[in-house]
Write a structure and sequence with these properties.
The structure is a single chain. By secondary structure, the chain is of the alpha+beta class. It has one domain. The protein contains 3 helices and 4 strands, in the order H-E-H-E-E-H-E. Strands 2-3-1-4 form a 4-stranded antiparallel β-sheet. A hairpin with a 3-residue loop joins strand 2 and strand 3. Helix 1 packs across helix 2 and helix 1 runs antiparallel to helix 3.
């Protein structure tokens, strides 16, 4: 399945801006360490198209992952800190992705 690459790139870039803005408002980082990340659902996306997107958004780290619960996703691994700070950045990125209209979600995991 072929996805709209420019729309995905723009959505990821906007999500990173939103995450950075949330971080600038409150860099407090107490709480439990976590691996929280926002993602885009990309069922059926080919590795070649994913790589185009990954290359276009560098230096932001995006990886193509397959999960039994979440399916095939482009995981956006952009955050600072390790606890509340990461959670706030994830939430802001997720809200931005939701606003883009693309199918998305959050990967939430305590360390």
């Amino acid at each position: 399945m072929r996805y709209d690459t420019p729309a995905i790139i723009a959505a990821i870039q906007a999500a990173v801006v939103a995450a950075n803005e949330a971080d600038a408002l409150d860099p407090e980082d107490g709480g439990t360490c976590n691996m929280d990340s926002a993602y885009l659902r990309v069922k059926g996306m080919q590795q070649k198209q994913a790589q185009e997107i990954i290359d276009a958004v560098k230096p932001v780290t995006v990886v193509l992952q397959d999960y039994s619960w979440h399916g095939r996703v482009l995981m956006i691994l952009h955050s600072h800190g390790q606890a509340n700070r990461r959670a706030r950045m994830c939430e802001a990125a997720y809200k931005s992705l939701t606003a883009s209209g693309l199918p998305c979600g959050q990967y939430l995991q305590m360390d």
